[in-house]
């Protein structure tokens, strides 16, 4: 589409650079062969535009009738990025009819999105999926929502009102050199609309056979000294799902959420954004857990996770000159969460400074400094305990990225590195190098080598979980327990990626990525010597295991998707992802189960086909089919999920939408909980409707 | 509740070897790509920025600059874009050298905002959003037609903003900004605009 495309940084921070620990020759060769075959597969990519007719001879009226099949913002951006990026636009959000962010994320090819029960999801990219997917970093307007306690994201408490989302950028692959530790296999960056773009009132009311709500209200205005502002409130309730055994999972989920945002222009050079949210919710589960050291030791217990929190963020953007700008962001976040077996409080304070400078036409530099302090308090119970009970952890970080136009418009190199210091493992350097070549206006090829680390969390180092109690010999109870390892090391990744994007015509674009990842020091579970333990009473046999770094391995895969505008009113988007993982214990590790368990928790094949049709009277019809192959480690069979939605803007002010989910089957499982003690739910056929009124 | 590293391994992983995995994956991928690419090659619609360039040409035709804004010695009408503008080739190829009355359009590449001096038209694509606001402020009152794309363009003080509705190019006009710069916009252009802002109030046109 573009007869030249500039390769410049697309995200406010664009990815990354390298430690070139070249993989084995065999591997490099494999990647090369694959890339070669992929290239050959294209039957002659058309060269850039033949001379177009003289458009200036057309009248304005004629020009206004030309359909330009605008390359959306998404594609323009992605076509320039040296990373596997996919952007969910505001329009995608509106047409999807989704009720929550995880359901929206299903449309991202190569992302593994599965639902565990009514309020829990397992979301990951490129393997290692689980309820606490610890290698995927998630940010909301620059605020990290990755838990430093459990190393993962509590999706049930992340409620960004969907009407306020501007876009969601999803980067598959490492982003740690720019975004920081734990952006090992991907980054999800949720960006909300500026307050100026959400002026006026907006009311949503919805209901369905499996949920009530969301009932949401939003109002945006302009205040004399404040600039634009908006306030919003939202609440919903999702019904419980049945479990695999057919009983009520008692996993119903409810949430109320309030938020605000202001965007103020302080001067010609300065602008200030503030935002905050306040929420409270709860979600249930049934878990088979130890309740006593006397028989019967274990029971199915209905637990209810209650959580509440608030946060405040301020960001000051200052323009020094047209080629130089700074941004200073500060936030405070307080969350607490717990059920009858544990309770956790966490405060986080974070400061982040960034400076963006263009040096001539050839170099674009971003550098930054950051500091974060987290303070937690973990209350103990028979099931979960922490030593020490309170811990303050600090994170110091600095990063720099230089994007160099080696050949302007043709070859761009991006070098970046991040140096961090954390309290668990000390200094940590995460570099990345990315190169993108645009041989002509329709094609771009990129490659990247990156190093990224997953740093330990409290759950890796300080937590003890009593997993199961069993009747032992001589009337002694046996307690099976996991212990955190204070000496846990970083999990390390060296990633090799290459991608090819092409615009075959104004109606068809393709995007493909091949990756090969090498992991070191992956977390393992190492059995320890049995002992007698007096406390908690009565004296019992302890069968302990502790975390180690006993695994290493490789993953590789292919991700491809297309956007095909078949007609002016109809767009088809097929996508496919292949994934393979091989993990091995290091000599000395006695972990015999984690390798197979992790390998078998991510599907080897995923496919999707999404269709988007504009109908008369502004009706819009979306339909999506997702195929996910089986998860052998979790005994989850393969399934095809079909979701569809119809939206109808009745007039300027009122819009109706009808959505059906999981229409092909009454029930299907998508994932099992983080451990087999928690019962997962069966996804069921669901329908809901929503009415939106703007004023 | 707890992230146990060892997910229970109820059945052993019995999947394909990596070789068959690769072959399967590759095959599917190649089929998908080649199949799709065969079928939809022919259609070709004009590039968005070539059409936008033609719009710019017409804007220049329907605009009156104050007499002192045009250099009598120079027969060109200069359209300025930044030299790192990714769409400059589409813009150049469409309107460079096209005649407007007694003048011809010349696409001038600038690298610094200071070089805007002497431009008759300035086009800022959405890729220039970063420096848009200070540039527009510095141009306030100057006889330079400013055309842009971002949703803040008019509120930042720009004059004409492109947007796309159902794949077709539309534009809004900030009449107050044009008038304060002593630019005369033809009523024909005003009629075709989706919205015309007069002194901050938007009139819904059509």
What does this structure look like?
- The complex is a heterodimer of chains A (695) and B (206).
- By secondary structure, chain A is mainly beta.
- Chain A is 8% helix and 57% strand.
- The longest helix of chain A has 16 residues, at 25-40.
- In chain A, the strands form four sheets. Chain A has a 22-stranded antiparallel beta barrel. Chain A has a five-stranded mixed β-sheet with strand order 1-6-7-4-5. In chain A, strands 2-3 form a two-stranded antiparallel ribbon.
- Chain A has one domain (25-41, 80-694): Maltoporin, Chain A.
- The relative contact order of chain A is 0.14.
- Chain B contains six helices and eleven strands.
- In chain B, the strands form two sheets. Chain B has a nine-stranded mixed β-sheet with strand order 3-4-2-5-6-7-8-10-11, sandwiched between helices.
- In chain B, a hairpin with a 2-residue loop joins strand 3 and strand 4.
- The longest helix of chain B is centred in the first third of the chain and has 22 residues, at 18-39.
- At the A-B interface, helix 1, helix 2, strand 13, strand 22 and strand 25 of A face helix 1, helix 2, helix 3, helix 4 and strand 8 of B.
């Amino acid at each position: 589409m573009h007869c030249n495309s500039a390769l410049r940084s697309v995200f406010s921070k664009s990815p990354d650079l390298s430690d070139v620990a070249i993989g084995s020759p065999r591997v490099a060769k494999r990647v090369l062969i694959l890339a070669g075959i992929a290239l050959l597969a294209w039957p002659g990519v058309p060269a850039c535009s033949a001379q177009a007719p003289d458009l200036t001879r057309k009248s304005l009226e004629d020009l206004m009738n030309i359909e330009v099949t605008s390359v959306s913002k998404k594609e323009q951006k992605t076509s320039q990025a040296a990373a596997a990026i996919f952007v969910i636009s505001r329009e995608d959000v509106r047409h999807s009819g989704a009720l929550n962010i995880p359901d929206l994320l299903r449309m991202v090819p190569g992302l593994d999105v599965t639902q565990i029960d009514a309020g829990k999801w397992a979301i990951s990219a490129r393997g290692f999926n689980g309820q606490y997917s610890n290698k995927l970093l998630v940010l909301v307007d620059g605020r990290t929502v990755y838990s430093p306690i459990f190393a993962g994201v509590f999706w049930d408490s992340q409620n960004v009102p969907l009407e306020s989302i501007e876009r969601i950028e999803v980067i598959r692959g490492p982003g740690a050199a720019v975004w920081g530790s734990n952006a090992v296999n991907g980054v999800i960056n949720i960006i909300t609309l500026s307050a100026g773009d959400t002026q006026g009132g907006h009311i949503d009311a919805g209901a369905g056979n499996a949920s009530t709500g969301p009932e949401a209200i939003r109002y945006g205005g302009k205040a004399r000294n404040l600039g634009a502002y908006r306030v919003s409130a939202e609440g919903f309730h999702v019904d419980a799902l049945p479990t695999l055994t057919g009983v009520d999972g008692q996993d119903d989920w409810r949430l109320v959420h309030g938020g605000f945002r202001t965007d103020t222009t302080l001067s010609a050079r300065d602008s200030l954004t503030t935002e905050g949210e306040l929420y409270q919710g709860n979600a249930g589960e049934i878990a088979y857990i130890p309740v006593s050291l006397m028989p019967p030791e274990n029971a199915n217990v209905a637990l209810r996770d209650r959580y509440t929190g608030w946060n405040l963020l301020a960001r000051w953007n200052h323009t020094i000159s047209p080629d130089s700008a700074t941004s200073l962001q500060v936030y405070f976040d307080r969350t607490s969460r717990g059920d009858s077996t544990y309770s956790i409080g966490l405060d986080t304070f974070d400061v982040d400074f960034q400076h963006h400078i263009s040096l001539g036409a050839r170099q674009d530099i971003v550098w930054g400094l950051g500091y974060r302090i987290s303070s937690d308090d973990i209350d103990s119970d028979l099931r979960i305990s922490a030593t020490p009970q309170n811990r303050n952890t600090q994170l110091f970080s600095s990063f720099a990225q230089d994007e160099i136009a080696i050949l302007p418009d043709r070859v761009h190199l991006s070098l970046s590195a991040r140096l961090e210091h954390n309290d668990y493992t000390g200094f940590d350097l995460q570099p990345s190098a990315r190169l993108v070549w645009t041989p002509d206006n329709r094609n771009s090829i990129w490659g990247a080598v990156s190093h990224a680390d997953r740093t330990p969390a409290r759950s890796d180092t300080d937590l003890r979980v009593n997993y199961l109690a069993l009747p032992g010999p001589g009337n002694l109870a046996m307690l099976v327990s996991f212990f955190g390892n204070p000496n846990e090391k970083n999990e390390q990744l060296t990633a090799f990626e290459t991608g090819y994007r092409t615009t075959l015509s104004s109606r068809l674009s393709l995007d493909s990525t091949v990756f090969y990842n090498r992991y070191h020091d992956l977390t393992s579970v190492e059995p320890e010597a049995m002992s007698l333990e007096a406390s908690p009473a009565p004296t019992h046999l302890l069968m302990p295991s502790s975390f180690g770094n006993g695994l290493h391995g490789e993953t590789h895969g292919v991700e491809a998707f297309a956007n095909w505008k078949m007609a002016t009113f109809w767009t088809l988007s097929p996508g496919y992802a292949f994934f393979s993982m091989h993990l091995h214990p290091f000599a000395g590790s006695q972990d015999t189960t984690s390798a197979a368990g992790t390998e078998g928790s991510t599907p080897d094949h995923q496919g999707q086909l999404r269709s988007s049709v504009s109908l008369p009277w502004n009706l819009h019809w979306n339909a999506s089919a997702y195929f996910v192959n089986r998860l052998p480690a979790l005994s989850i069979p393969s399934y095809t999920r079909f979701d569809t939605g119809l939206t109808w803007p009745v007039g300027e002010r009122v819009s109706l939408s009808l959505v059906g989910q999981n229409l092909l089957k009454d029930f299907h499982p998508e994932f099992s909980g983080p451990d087999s003690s928690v019962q997962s739910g069966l996804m069921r056929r669901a329908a809901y409707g929503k009415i939106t009124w703007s004023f | 509740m707890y992230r146990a590293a060892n997910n229970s391994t109820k059945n052993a992983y019995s999947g394909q070897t990596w070789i068959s995995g690769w072959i399967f994956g590759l095959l599917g991928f190649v089929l998908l790509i080649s199949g799709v690419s065969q079928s939809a090659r022919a259609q070709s619609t004009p590039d968005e920025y070539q059409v936008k360039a033609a719009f710019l040409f017409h804007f220049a035709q329907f605009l009156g600059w104050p007499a002192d804004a045009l250099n009598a010695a120079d027969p060109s009408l200069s359209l300025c874009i930044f030299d790192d503008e990714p769409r400059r080739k589409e813009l150049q190829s469409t309107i460079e050298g096209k005649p407007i009355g007694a003048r011809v359009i010349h696409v001038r590449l600038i690298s610094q905002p200071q070089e805007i001096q002497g431009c008759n038209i300035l086009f800022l694509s959405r890729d220039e959003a970063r420096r848009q606001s200070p540039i527009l402020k510095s141009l306030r009152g100057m006889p330079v037609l400013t055309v842009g794309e971002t949703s803040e363009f008019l509120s930042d003080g720009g004059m004409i903003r492109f947007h796309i509705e159902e794949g077709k190019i539309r534009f809004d006009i900030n009449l107050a900004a044009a008038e304060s710069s002593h630019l005369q916009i033809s009523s024909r252009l005003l009629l075709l605009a989706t919205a015309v802002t007069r002194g901050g109030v938007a009139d819904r046109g059509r």
